[in-house]
Amino acid sequence: QDFVIIMIGQAVTFTVLLALGLTVQATQIFGNHGTLSGWDSTNVEHEGSLQEVTNVYYEPSTALKMTQVYDSSYTGRYHSEVAKEAVYKRGDTGFYGFAFRLQQDWQTSPAQSYNIGQFIADFTDTGCDDWMPSSMVWVLGDQLYSRVKYGTICDQKITTYSNLATIEPGVWYKVEIQASWQTDGTGYYKLWLNGTKVLEKYNIDTTIEDDRPFDFHVGLYANGWHDDKTLKGTQGTRQVWIDEVAAGSTFADADPDQW
């Protein structure tokens, strides 16, 4: 199993801990049960909204409902997100999880990208980028996608992991990521959907060559509208529900069913 703890920025494996006669202690660095309180910040742009609701949830009795509305005269971005600051930096290893649900009548065709989770940091001082996401999780059509980003901030490289699973509108899913955030070819990146591992990559670079901390954002970011400069299809109002968001040092720390 994938047991790790974070100790002074380095991963110590379960096997080594046993050899030393030590016990693995779970350390949840953050947890939110679908409420507006407890976040470091929120980001709601243009005509979007963010609500705490009690009629739709993954676990009783609250969840966050994110809405975005397309506007053909608007050229900005479409975020409706909540954020937890500084969940990882280069050299860390951790688990990150959340539950999500697309609206019941979510239009999957024609396919367009809608991001539901991302790790992001401010690189404005570099002159090469501003707020830059590293790994992201998104829905394209009816498929789940993710990615890793590496290289330097001025020479970014991306590996995309496509068609990881089929996503049905109106159904709750739980996502969990385990990542070893490295830039020396020793990193790994794993993703589970509803407890089934759908992605596992070892001996890769998983983040940018920089030591600043990355924040964890979840919600609805209709990035396809901005990047494609148009709405594909006819559904200009999109809604996503988010619940049971967490990060920690073990799988159970971040699994929506285990805390």
Let me know the average pLDDT: 93
Q: Give the strand content.
A: over 45%
SSE pattern, N- to C-terminal: EEHEEEEEEEEEEEEEEHEH
Number of strands: 17
- Rg for CA atoms: 18 Å
Fraction of residues in helix: under 10%
**Terminal residue distance:** 18 Å
How many helices? The count is 3
Largest sheet: 8 strands, antiparallel
Q: Can you tell me the overall shape?
A: globular
Low-pLDDT windows of residues = 1-22
Structural class: mainly beta
Quick overview:
The chain is 6% helix and 51% strand. The strands form three sheets. Strands 3, 5, 6, 8, 13, 14, 15 and 17 form an eight-stranded antiparallel beta sheet that branches. Strands 4-7-16-9-10-11-12 form a seven-stranded antiparallel beta sheet.
Describe the model.
The protein has 259 residues and is mostly beta strands. The chain is 6% helix and 51% strand. Strands 3, 5, 6, 8, 13, 14, 15 and 17 form an 8-stranded antiparallel beta sheet that branches. It has a 7-stranded antiparallel beta sheet with strand order 4-7-16-9-10-11-12. The longest helix is centred in the first third of the chain and has 6 residues, at 14-19. Residues 1-22 have low confidence and may be disordered.
